[in-house]
Design brief:
Blueprint: H1 3-10, H2 13-19, E1 21-24, H3 38-44, E2 49-51, H4 56-69, E3 77-80, H5 93-97, H6 102-118, E4 123-124, H7 148-163, E5 176-180, H8 199-206, H9 208-215, E6 220-223, E7 227-228, E8 231-232, H10 237-247, E9 253-254, H11 264-267, H12 273-283, E10 288-289, H13 293-303, H14 309-325, H15 341-358, E11 360-364, E12 376-379, H16 405-412, E13 418-421, H17 434-440, E14 446-452, H18 473-482, E15 488-494, H19 502-507, E16 510-513, H20 521-530, E17 593-601, E18 604-605, E19 610-619, E20 625-635, E21 646-655, E22 660-668, E23 674-675, E24 681-682, E25 686-693, E26 702-708
Parallel strand pairs: 1-2, 1-10, 2-3, 3-4, 5-6, 6-9, 12-13, 12-14, 14-15, 15-16, 18-26
Antiparallel strand pairs: 7-8, 11-16, 17-19, 19-22, 20-21, 20-25, 23-24, 25-26
Helix pairs in contact: 2-13, 3-4, 6-7, 6-15, 7-9, 12-13, 15-20, 16-20, 17-18
Bound molecules: 1-deoxynojirimycin.
The site of 1-deoxynojirimycin has 7 residues, from loops.
Length: 709
């Protein structure tokens, strides 16, 4: 008998349910907390997994309880939300998505894994792969943005980065792809609300990132809190058992979200914990996070005949197998230790590089940036706010370890006249300090307006009906702009979403989306402002001009009445343009790029052929810069309407002034399949438009036509 089989044979029911239970250490909670004595549960074997406990010593101590005091000596699994770094914070995922760089996406996950593993963690609840097209939803901050292809590439990179090449290595973590699925489609962007998505949208938009995570070997998956078509994901047999387990072959651990099994009662699909537990287990959920539903509910479910012991054993087997894969049976203490000074310094350097690359230059009139010499007035509540730079889910990252914009600028520009006034708080309605901030701008040449959200305004439970500048920040910006005649004004936005700020964007000379850049925020912002680095971030979400446009995204399907300003009865708004303020992929640099010579060969392809696509990119600007190049397609006539643009590739090229280079893509023709009427992949002969360029603004894309035969 294998180790796992012998253990299962030796376990009592209570011990089995312990392996299916995750308890919190109570040091950080996001919802209802199970009242439990952690230590006693571990010793009794009724808690097998722990959430929110980190620090090599603390983890070592609880592990020791399991290994020395519990009857079967099964190692504990320790889990934490290491979303964008642990102690060293990288930009929030939406900011990282702006890099469009899978090598760096993997690198930050690798570093986060090393740092968290050194703190005794075995599993991270990341990557978050929810495609999100609604910036009212605060969790748009945590994921890849609006596009499923970006989600797929990010899924692969992150799983590889967190898990490394061998899960048993001491510096590797089990990853958890979440939240399966369509959580990003919550109604009206309201957190935890219901979702209404078609089976086609699931296949085309919401499932692909999870499919990529499974293909990359992700160790665990978390069902979303929400429902799809009336069936909560935590109890969704069709999506968990039939699709994930049977169709995709995912046979590892499904871990519920926080208290989600008990919440099946609120959803109205279970009348008590017994039914809730049975529904979740039957759907294939192995670990109950925090609800105590398996420990309290499954014994009753067995008695009522709602579940079988074999089903419980299957779940226990998966959990033990994960612990085995993590190397915990061989050495339960293998994670936890001290990292070397050089390793930490290299990580900070990476954090600065990635943060710099995540910043998107949205607007730069008259080459306002980079800054010249001159006096600076740094205004706004985000200018000296190191804690806010960390972003949502800061893990163990401390405010005192992050660099504020003000500090970063002072370091980068020693001796320069830099004055600072917050003007207002992030959210308060107090306007009494605005006048002081305005008068501080008097002698300045350039005013930097550091505006945006606090870290609690995005991420979980961070929905906003007015996703613009909070509090009195707009009043501050208007007062500063009114008095800023002859001065340059640069707005730097810190936020977990694209902030809807059309008036500000119109009036400032330059505007940057800095998201939440992490520990090295201020240094990264200073690198961009001073021109030490040329901006290269691209927005991974279409940037709305009004809440009424939401959801606005580039992958829209065609309509029978495309917008026509001359025809009233066409698909458009009467009061604003259909187009977002900035398209997906938009981001300026300090160079100036042109595209030429798009070539696609062959011009006809069968399903197993590939297209080679190349384009010449020329930097006719005065500075070296990096250009991100996007490859889109449009299937012009198909049996099912196809989106007007579908992203199929992206790449980056760095060019000195006056230089040109060639960017090449290989596009397998089979990647142009789409879910047919039966939702199975369909290769349909016909004409395909290939479009290459700097963003999803169709007017700026070079087109070429090919045929699938
Ligand atoms: C609830 C969140 O939805 C999930 O993303 C997170 O991993 C868990 N809480 C654990 O903190």
């Amino acid at each position: 008998m294998s180790r796992i089989e012998s253990l299962i044979a030796a376990m009592t029911l209570a011990e089995k349910l312990g392996q299916l239970t995750m308890a919190t250490s109570d040091s950080a909670v996001t919802g209802a907390v199970m009242s439990t004595n952690l230590g006693a549960g571990i010793v009794a074997g009724t808690i097998g997994n722990v959430l929110n406990l980190y620090g090599a010593e603390k983890v070592g101590a609880v592990q020791q309880l399991a290994m020395e005091k519990s009857r079967l000596k099964i190692p504990l699994l320790t889990c934490l939300d290491v979303i964008h770094g642990h102690r060293t914070l990288f930009p929030i995922p939406l900011g990282e998505a702006s890099l469009f760089d899978p090598i760096l996406w993997e690198a930050t996950a690798r570093e986060a894994a090393k740092e968290a593993a050194a703190d005794g963690i075995h599993l991270t609840f990341a990557p978050m792969l929810d495609v999100a097209r609604d910036p009212r939803w605060g969790r748009i901050a945590e994921g890849p943005g609006e596009d499923p292809f970006v989600g797929q590439v990010m899924a692969q990179a992150k799983v590889k980065g967190f898990q490394g090449s061998d899960l048993s290595q001491a510096d590797c973590l089990a990853a958890c792809a979440k939240h399966y699925c369509a959580y990003g489609a919550v109604t009206a962007g309201r957190e935890y609300a219901t979702t209404e998505v078609s089976r086609r949208s699931l296949r085309e938009i919401y499932l692909p990132p999870f499919e990529a995570a499974v293909a990359a070997g992700v160790a665990t998956i978390m069902p979303a809190f929400t429902d799809v078509a009336g069936v909560p994901l935590t109890a969704n047999r069709a999506l968990l058992k039939d699709y994930l387990r049977h169709k995709l072959g995912f046979d590892s651990v499904l871990v519920s979200d926080y208290n989600a099994i008990a919440e099946l009662i609120h959803h109205g699909v279970a009348s008590d914990l017994v039914e809730a537990a049975a529904l979740a287990l039957k759907a294939g959920v192995d670990i109950d996070m925090i609800a105590n539903a398996y420990r309290d509910g499954l014994p009753g479910a067995l008695e009522r005949g709602l579940v079988t012991m074999a089903e419980i054993d299957t779940a226990v087997k998966r959990v033990l197998r994960l612990k085995e894969q993590l190397g915990l049976f061989d050495d339960p203490y293998r994670r936890g230790g001290t990292e070397s000074g050089p390793a930490l310094m290299a990580r900070r350097k990476l954090a600065r590089d990635v943060a710099t690359r995540s910043i998107v230059l949205l607007k730069n009139e008259n080459a306002t940036l980079p800054l010249g010499n001159g006096r600076l007035a740094v205004i706004g509540p985000l200018a000296d706010a190191p804690g806010e730079m960390r972003g949502c889910w800061p893990s163990a990252g401390r405010a005192e370890d992050s660099v504020s914009v003000l500090a970063g600028l002072k370091t980068a520009l020693p001796g320069q006249d830099i004055r600072y006034a917050p003007g207002v708080d992030i959210e308060s309605t107090d306007e009494s300090r605005i006048a002081e901030a305005v008068s501080l701008c008097d002698g300045a040449d350039t005013i930097l307006l550091c505006l945006g959200e606090s870290i609690g305004m995005s991420g979980e439970a961070g929905s906003r009906a007015h996703p613009g500048l909070p509090g009195k920040q707009r009043a501050l910006a208007e007062a500063v702009l009114a008095g800023a005649v002859g001065k340059r004004v640069v707005a730097i936005l810190f936020s977990g979403r694209p902030l809807i700020v059309p008036e500000l964007s119109e009036r400032v000379d330059a505007m940057l989306a800095a998201w939440a850049p992490g520990s090295e925020a201020g240094n990264a912002v200073a690198d961009i402002l001073t021109g030490r680095a040329s901006p290269s971030g691209r927005t991974p979400v279409s940037w709305p001009r009004a809440v009424g446009q939401i959801p606005v995204f580039f992958g829209q399907r065609p309509t029978g009445r495309p917008a026509d300003p001359k025809d009233h009865y066409t698909s458009k708004y009467l009061d604003i343009p259909n187009e977002p303020l900035f398209p997906f992929g938009h981001g300026l640099t300090y160079g100036a790029f042109d595209y030429a010579n798009l070539s696609v060969t062959p011009d006809k392809a069968r399903e197993n052929d590939s297209f080679t696509i190349s384009v010449t990119v020329i930097n006719h600007g005065a500075r070296e810069a990096s250009e991100t190049v996007f490859l889109f397609v449009h299937d012009m006539v198909a049996s099912i309407t196809r989106p007007l643009l579908e992203l199929k590739g992206f790449d980056r090229i760095t060019l000195k002034p006056g230089d040109s280079g060639i960017v090449r893509f290989t596009l397998p023709a089979r990647n142009l399949r789409f879910p047919g009427a039966d939702l199975e992949p369909l290769f349909e002969p016909g004409e395909i438009e290939i479009l290459v360029g700097p963003s999803a603004d169709r007017a700026r894309l070079l087109p070429a036509n090919v045929r699938l035969v």
